[in-house]
Amino acid sequence: MENSQLVERLKNCYTGAIYDVLRERGIKNTILPHNIKSIDPSKKLAGVIWTCSGEIDETLDKDTSMLSWTNMLSQAPSNSVVICQPNDGTIAHMGELSAETLKFKGVKGYIVDGGCRDVDFILNLEFPVFCKYFTPSDVVERWKISTLGETINIGGVDIKSGDFVLGDIDGVIIIPKEIANEVITETEEYINTESALRKEILSGVDPKEAYLKYRVF
Description:
The chain has 7 helices and 12 strands. By secondary structure, it is of the alpha/beta class. The strands form 3 sheets. Strands 1, 2, 3, 4, 6, 8, 11 and 12 form an 8-stranded mixed beta sheet that branches.
């Protein structure tokens, strides 16, 4: 199945259901740290991942730091979700003009194990961003991109370009690309089972009895 079709189906899922399906498969280390949150809790983000990472470098001049950053913006594939491991917790790794650029390129959203600034402007853009904190401080003369498209690790979770991601108000979960189709299909079935369980609960069925029938709750 085409990635675009899988992403459309993934949008209709939620992270809790994806986690339950992965847990049943014995795969538990897929959730990013809980302090990585959407700047707009009403926004859901689903897509195919493209990774980048960076590092602090106090020897940088303005042009070198900005050329490194804008090269990443240039390389980011349309229809991807960019996930960044900045290896830093002091500055912003996303701002208004960068978000505007990525949105114009057709990038679906941005997730960073770091910071964001210009939050009011990005909210007005309706460009999904997940981050840990806000700060006015930016990358100029302080931070550079070190890898593009390579495996990164955030909170003990390995993330590869081509993997799938779903982010919602509960958090962010990674789905390995090798099993994405199966996991999404199983999650759709799980959600249908939950709907049937919900109807029974609302019709007065005892919760224990309902659980024993459906084995979900």
